[in-house]
Every structure is written in structure tokens, then in C-alpha cells.
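Hello,

Our lab assistant flagged a job as stuck in the queue for most of the afternoon. It eventually completed. Since we weren't sure the result was trustworthy after the delay, we are filing this so someone can double-check. Below is the sequence as submitted and the structure that was eventually returned. Let us know if re-running is recommended.
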Amino acid sequence: MTDDREKLIRQDGLLIGIAGASLLSGMHFSPFFDPAFVLVKFLVAPAFFISSPLLLFYFTSLLVSVACLIVAGVPAALYERAKHPGTSSGTSLGIWLAGLLVLAAPVFFGMAG
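-- returned structure --
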């Protein structure tokens, strides 16, 4: 029983890292933010009657975060499908986190300068 708890604690840490990296990749200093902002402003905002600039920034940040989360999850899903069908492992979560950190790497450079 302690082995299951240790495994779950490790997976919880990876999930927290995944959530943090996803939120970081959706920040306004991300290089993905400006193209997504133009997309949201001209395509999504008129459809939902969004006129507030603050709401546009929030929705753009959410869109970029979710898109990075989905794109980074593809290699992890392929690994999980090939190696461990039917179960999730810490390795697939690590692959997901590594993919998100690769996508969030330009954000670190954007924060620095």
C-alpha cells in the first residue's frame, strides 16, 4: 500500500509541474500570445460579443495555455499507447512535462528580456 502512495505522490508532483508549465506558457510575454491574441480578437471575440480588452487577454491566455497543454500531451499519449495500454505511468507524465517545458522555453527568454 505504501508503494501506491509513493507513486501517487510522485505523479501529483508531475501534475503540478504540468499545470504550472501550462500556465506559464500562456502568459502575455509568451511568443505564442500575440498571434493568438489577433486570432481571438478577430475570430472569437465577435462571435461571443466580447468587447472588453481585459477579457480578450484572459481568453487568449487560456487559449494558449490549453493549446500548449494539448500539443505537449501528444508525445506522452503516443508513448502511453505504445508501452502501457490501459494504464497511466509516471514516465508518460514526465514526457508530458518535458514537452511542456520545451514549449515554455521561449517564455523564459521572454521573461528575462
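-- support follow-up --
The delay was a queue issue, not a problem with the job. The result is valid. The chain has one domain: 2-112. The mean pLDDT is 87.
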